[in-house]
Amino acid sequence: MLMKKTAILLGATGLTGGPLLNLLLKDNYYGKIKLFSRRSVGITHPKLEEHLVDVLQLENQKEIFRADEVFCCIGTTKAKTPDAETYKKIDYGIPFTAAKLCKENNIKTFLVISAMGANPKSKVFYNKTKGEMERDVLAQQIKNTFILRPSLIAGNRKEKRFGETIATFIFGIINPLLPKKYNSISPEDIAKAMVYVANNGNIQNTIESNQIKEIAIQCRKLNENF
Predict the structure, then answer these.
(1) Among the listed residues 9, 26, 127, 17, the one whose alpha carbon sits nearest the alpha carbon of residue 68
(2) Rounded to the nearest 5°, which phi and psi values hold at 25?
(3) How far apart are CA 180 and CA 113, in angstroms?
(4) Which residues contact 215 (CB under 8 A, 6 or more apart)?
(5) Strand arrangement of the beta sheet that strand 69-72 belongs to
């Protein structure tokens, strides 16, 4: 009999976290999905276990932060979080703390959404923050660590972000002219790729945007609940 897995999901109320949660709840590989977040997703399901906590102090949840896999979909924007210190606490602090808890609690699989252009030496604050997060997550040496670097994520957000709305519109026009690596990507494709990689692995730790799309296409071809 197949032992069903427990997954932890951070960022379940976000643009990518929502579709990812739906996939995990439908996937027969998983018996329990544990959410750590500030607010409820507003649904009930026999697999779902919600922990409403301050995710900026995730280290306080060590005793219940136990699972087979952790999916981290945490992220904010300058428009939503203009204070640089708070921004870094979210985009760097939460994923890094989650990775440390994985190491301490012997969780062997950690997947996190980063961003295209992430580089700890970048002069751009956003790219630098993501790069530092990647560097320090990898330093935890979790057995199965996968970092996804999507391009612009095209989707309908609950909160309106004017800059991203304009960018999505422009990307929609020029997408066919861009190299595949720079095409915008849907949150659903990111979610599909995360679940597939969690269950099947990948040949490299860092997965670029075009590779995420290729994995999602393969998922649809295989009809694996996608």
Answers:
(1) 9
(2) -70, -30
(3) 19
(4) 192, 193, 196, 197, 202, 207
(5) 48-52, 30-37, 5-10, 69-72, 109-113, 144-149, 206-208
Residue ranges of the chain with per-residue pLDDT less than 70: 1-2, 155-181, 223-226
Token digits for 46?
């026999």
| Ordered domains of the chain (ranges, CATH) | 5-222 (3.40.50.720)
Instruction: Say which amino acid occupies 123.
Output: K
Which 8-state DSSP code applies to residue 18?
Answer: H
In DSSP notation, 154-206 reads: -S--SS--HHHHHHHHHHHHHGGGS-GGGS-B-HHHHHHHHHHHHHH--SSSE
Residue 222: its pLDDT value, please? 78
According to DSSP, the β-strands at 48-52 and 144-149 are unpaired
Query: What are the residues whose beta carbons fall under 8 Å from the beta carbon of 163, sequence distance 6 or more?
Result: 77, 79
Q: Cα angle vertex 163, ends 162, 167, to 5°?
A: 115
- Residue 171 is predicted with a pLDDT of 45
Q: Can you spell out the DSSP letters for 43-99?
A: ---TTEEEEE--GGGGGGGTTT---SEEEE-----TTT---HHHHHIIIIIHHHHHH
The secondary structure of residue 124, as a DSSP letter, is: S
